[in-house]
Write a structure and sequence with these properties.
Keywords: Membrane, Transmembrane, Transmembrane helix. The protein contains four helices and no strands. It is mainly alpha-helical. The longest helix has 28 residues.
Length: 110
Amino acid sequence: MDTDEKMAAGTSSGHDEIDFTSGYETQYRKKYSPLKPIYVPPPDKRNAWFRSWPTILMIIFLASVFLLGTILLVVQVFTTSVLQVLLIVAAYVAIAAVMIWMEVQSIKVR
């Protein structure tokens, strides 16, 4: 007689015998229960960017550098050599890299 035939002949109920006293059922319920929403309080208005002087000054500085650089670049493109245009673009990239580096460092400090 084959093993499968012995199992089929021996148990005719068709139910597996699982012992739920080990806490399996409660572990299953904890793991697969729907997540409870987490209340996230609204941000503090005192920390808004427009209330922070360093942020306002940084935005004004970046806007003025961008505006001045754009005007100089347009003037230089139509009047002078390629080398001066390249220097202005390189200065743009350098200022942007320094500002990004400063922002990354300030986030690490927070």
